[in-house]
Automatic annotation (TrEMBL):
Protein name: Tripartite tricarboxylate transporter substrate binding protein
Family: Belongs to the UPF0065 (bug) family.
Signal peptide from the UniProt entry: 1-22
Matching Gene3D superfamilies: Bordetella uptake gene, domain 1, Periplasmic binding protein-like II
Organism classification: Bacteria, Pseudomonadati, Pseudomonadota, Alphaproteobacteria, Acetobacterales
Pfam families on file: TctC (PF03401)
Record-linked InterPro entries: BUG, Bug_dom1
């Protein structure tokens, strides 16, 4: 039995609806809104705009991408639940508010069963990047620098509870280092602060941070996945670099969600549109450029994947004893 299947049995409230495999006849009757629970320039925003551009052409209606950042994705996620459940409001979700948050926050204002996973867009590792002024050209050198300066360096993230935040927490705990966490309202603002030298390092989604790495405005030291990434083959996986990080393995992901009250026909129609987008040469090239891989699958497949992620991060958070209040 696969991990995803075991997770599906453990979380029956997220069971995928019985959606027919025949092509859906549902089509939007008004403009469609894609809510991105983060600031522009991060991967949630990139994913939302890729899907939005495709849907506008495929469905022949205006598609507006709306950034509603703040509280680690909670504000934007709530916004989708406030909208009519008629298929015209889509959530560009991600690992933070749609998996990690359920175990991290004590008073989260929404629950997993209120959302229907529709289809994944992209997944990939986080990348550890430092400002050029930091005297470290490798991950062990950064660890040594942090240990010489406990609590004096700061690292950014796209928000409390997002994958880069938890990656940073796990990294500091595994290496016995201390640093100040500074959350921003998305990966874009955090990267701006890093490039400006206002923070010293951050774990960023490779799919959004790779352009700054290629431009040389930040220095990359490692990726968070178990293996190296094909787009940066000379960059080591973090677990290669130090015995303390032998178990270190994090991949982040992004996909589209509906309110669970949205009709099944609309859910199937969106999944079908995303399948067509995923098959295009332009989308395949964009994924390579982002340093990620496709996460597209059927509605049941993506639902099972999200369930497994909720279970996985619950175990990590409970093991580390992390609990926060949603702000």
């Amino acid at each position: 039995m696969t991990i995803a299947r075991r997770a599906a049995l453990a979380l029956p409230f997220l069971a995928a609806p019985a959606i027919a495999r025949a092509q859906s006849t549902w089509r939007p009757t008004q403009p469609v809104r894609i809510v991105v629970p983060a600031a522009p320039a991060g991967t949630s925003d990139i994913a939302g705009r890729l899907v939005g551009a495709h849907l506008q052409q495929a469905w022949g209606v205006n598609v507006v991408v709306e950034n509603r950042s703040g509280a680690g994705g909670i504000i934007g996620t709530q916004e989708v639940l406030r909208a009519p459940a008629d298929g015209h409001t889509i959530l560009s979700g991600n690992i933070g508010p749609q998996a990690i948050a359920y175990s991290l926050f004590r008073n989260l204002p929404f629950r997993p069963e209120q959302f229907q996973p529709v289809a994944g867009v992209v997944k990939g590792p986080n990348v550890l990047v430092v400002h050029p002024s930091v005297p470290a050209n490798s991950l062990p050198e950064l660890v040594a620098h942090l240990k010489r300066n406990p609590g004096r360096l700061s690292y950014g993230s796209p928000g409390v509870g997002q994958s880069p935040h938890l990656t940073g927490v796990w990294f500091n705990q595994a290496t016995g280092t201390e640093a100040i966490h500074i959350p921003y309202r998305g990966a874009g603002p955090a990267m701006v602060e890093l490039v400006a030298g206002n923070i010293q390092y951050m774990w960023d989604n490779l799919s959004s941070g790779i352009q700054q790495v290629r431009a040389g405005t930040v220095r990359a030291l490692a990726v968070s996945s178990a293996e190296r990434n094909a787009e940066l083959p000379d960059l080591p996986a973090a677990r290669e670099t130090m015995p303390e990080l032998a178990q270190f393995d994090v991949n982040t992901w992004f996909g589209m969600f509906y309110s669970s009250a949205v009709p099944n026909a609309a859910t199937q129609a969106l999944n079908e549109a995303m399948r067509a987008m995923d098959a295009t040469d332009a989308m395949k090239a964009r994924l390579v450029q982002m340093g990620g891989v496709s996460l597209y699958g059927s509605v049941p497949d993506f639902t099972a994947f999200v369930q497994a992620e909720i279970v996985k991060w619950r175990a990590v958070i409970q093991r580390e004893g992390l609990q926060l209040d949603a702000t």
